Amino acid sequence: MFDGRLNRKTLAIALALIVALVAAPFCISRFYVYFVAQILVIGLLATSLNMVLGYGGMYQFHHAVFYGAGAYALALMLTKTGFPPFIGYLLGPVVGALLAFLMALICARLSKLYFGMLQLSLGSLVWALVFRWYSFTGGDDGIHGIPMPEIVASISGSYYFTLIVTLVCLLVMYMIINSPFGRIFQAIRDNPERSASVGVNVRAHQIVGQVIAGFFAGVAGVLFVTVEGSVFPDLLFWTLSLEILIMCLLGGWFTFLGPMLGAAIIVTLRTVVGVHTEYWTFVMALILMLLIFFLPEGVLGYFEERWRERGALAAREDR
Amino acid sequence: MLTVDSVQMSFDGFMAVRDANLAVEKGQVVAVIGPNGAGKSTLFKLITGHLKPAGGRILFKGEDIAGLPPHKICRKGISLSFQIVNIFNRLTVFENVQVGVLSHLKQSFSFFQPSKRVAVEETKDILQSFGLSHLAHRVSGSLSHGDQKVLEIAIAMGNRPELLILDEPTAGMSPEESFATIGLINRLTNDFGLTILFCEHDMELVFNVAHKIMVMHQGISLIQGDPDEIRSNAEVQEAYLGGGDRC
User: Fold this and answer.
1) Neighbouring residues of B133: CB distance < 8 A, sequence distance ≥ 6
2) Contact A193 B115 (CB under 8 A)
3) Which of B100, B116, B118 sits opposite A198 (nearest CB)?
4) Does B70 sit within 8 Å of A208, measured CB to CB?
5) Where are the domains of chain A?
6) Which residues in chain A have their CB less than 8 angstroms from residue B68's CB?
7) pLDDT digits over A166-180, tens only?
8) Is B92 at the interface with chain A, CB within 8 A?
9) Among A180, A191, A205, whose Cβ lies nearest the Cβ of B107?
């Protein structure tokens, strides 16, 4: 009964949120529409990272590289080829997934910290390539003024496109996490040795998990291009990876919507604090420290725990 | 069913297992005993693929499985329950057992159906036969040690193994819990027709349930025989039983 109550409540909140998001362009200024789109894009990226981090237990230290790869794939398709734009939109996530597959093949042998460090080095290599290859990627200048297809050229067009794609991706990721694959993925996170001894091919699952996460990071990448109309090497720089990692931890890395919430908090704070001071990273460091000490399960993780306790208490009183 | 033939294994030059020999027939309960450091756990890890033997053969149903990875050995019908509780801490009791069942039903790469509707009956059956049904929705990390130990064995049953290997099933248990474990092992062989290989320090339990006993000492298997033979063997007396140990 408690489950039913909680589900109805969650569903109501989710529906209200979706209605608010759909109505947003009619109610708020263009700046805020752009601002919400930014949160959706980076939130989708953080959620894709959390699939491997929170649900897979893999220290994916350089997840942004798949995001950047997806963004660059679309940008290059739109500026350097005459293919119809939708091919670029399909190619972005595929490039993200392919790069994730290659890196997973190399990294999956290693465990925990070593995995993360090798991932970080390989990702930085890709960044260096993009940063230096002026003739192809535009080097450190990036590519600006990318001609966008008409349907997403306006602010509300790009917003609705971003909103729909993000919601669909969240739904698909949610389904995957709750599928038998997702359950086994979480079992591997908790105990890889035991998983292998109940017949699970741990390495194959980890590689598939990374490819899925890379794919959705690629989707976030093409959405970034849609919203911003430009790409630059910072999209694949390790500091962005660190930032989305903090979003996962802040929101709650054992919850599905935690990373999205974390993204909303960080992007909002950055925008608000950025008006008053240029030392945004100082504020971020403070947040991280407070988080580690007081909310090790993240904001949403904290509230879920409280809800569970209340539910258990109510159940006991019922009895 | 299982034959271990002159298996060896060394850790950085230290021969943990020098010459292990073992024969397990279908339907038997076989115990491996020996003092700490005799190589029992290492032998079990060699059989289940968690370690690779340096030499010798391990035949399961006539096929050499030495050196195969753990998930492949598991799929051939051998399940291992660990000495130290080795469960999926953040998952519920139900989900813990379901993992093994999903893997056995080859559902582990199924992406778009909710896992709460897959392998439910099979999982519930196992929970029921282990008396864990009332704990099904508890997060396993919050259970008592005794319950975790039972769950540990229940997880190994998810794969419908033919041979179940238990590494010290009563380690850290109270006398009552150990007693319940004896009943559980008997039930596993009688009701499920399982073949069981286990190692144990509790001699009362060993002589109570084992059909055959193999004695290991310093990485070498000294003898394998029925409980009476082992009790009266002079070599065993000297190496282990008579050495002031717990028997």
Assistant:
1) B124, B127
2) no
3) B100
4) no
5) 20-238
6) none
7) 999 999 999 999 999
8) no
9) A180
Averaged pLDDT score across all residues of chain A:
89
Residue B6 has φ and ψ, to the nearest 5°, of: 45, 45
Distance CA B43, CA B4 (A): 9
CA distance B85 to B150: 9
Distance CA B28, CA B7 (A): 21
Whether B109 and chain A come into contact, CB under 8 Å, resolves to yes
Size of interface A-B (CB pairs under 8 A): 108
Per-residue pLDDT, B192: 82
Contact B89 A202 (CB under 8 A): no
Chain B residues with CB-CB distance to A205 below 8 A? 108
Helix (H) or strand (E) holding B5: strand B2-11
Instruction: Name the residue ranges covered by the structural domains of chain B.
Output: 1-74+201-247
Q: What is the 3-state secondary structure of chain A? A: CHHHHHHHHHHHHHHHHHHHHHHHHHHCCHHHHHHHHHHHHHHHHHHHHHHHHCCCCCCCCCCHHHHHHHHHHHHHHHHHCCCCHHHHHHHHHHHHHHHHHHHHHHHCCCCHHHHHHHHHHHHHHHHHHHHHCHHHHCHHHCECCCCCCHHHCCHHHHHHHHHHHHHHHHHHHHHHHCCHHHHHHHHHHHCHHHHHHCCCCHHHHHHHHHHHHHHHHHHHHHHHHHHHCCECHHHHCHHHHHHHHHHHHHHCCCCCCHHHHHHHHHHHHHHHHHHHCCCHHHHHHHHHHHHHHHCCCHHHHHHHHHHHHHHHHHHHHHC
**Four-way CATH pick for B1-74+201-247: 3.40.1280.10, 3.50.50.60, 3.60.20.10, 3.40.50.300:** 3.40.50.300
Residues of chain B with Cβ-Cβ distance to A179 below 8 Å are 110-115
Which residue of chain A has the CA closest to B159? A198
CA-derived radius of gyration, chain B: 18
Q: How far is B225 from chain A (nearest CA, A)?
A: 29
Confidence of residue A5 (pLDDT cuts 50, 70, 90): very low
Mutate to test the interface with B, among A194, A205, A212, A304 (most CBs of B within 10 A): A194
**Which chain A residues touch B87 with a CB distance below 8 Å?**
190-191, 194
- B36-66 confidence digits (pLDDT tens): 888 888 999 999 999 999 989 999 998 999 9
> A172: nearest CA in chain B?
B112
* Residue B241 banded pLDDT, cuts 50, 70, 90: low
Whether B103 sits inside 8 A of A200 (CB atoms) is yes
Residues of A in contact with B100 (CB under 8 A): 198-199
Give the position of tokens 């993360």. A116
Q: What's the rounded Cα separation, in Å, for the pair B193 and B22?
A: 20
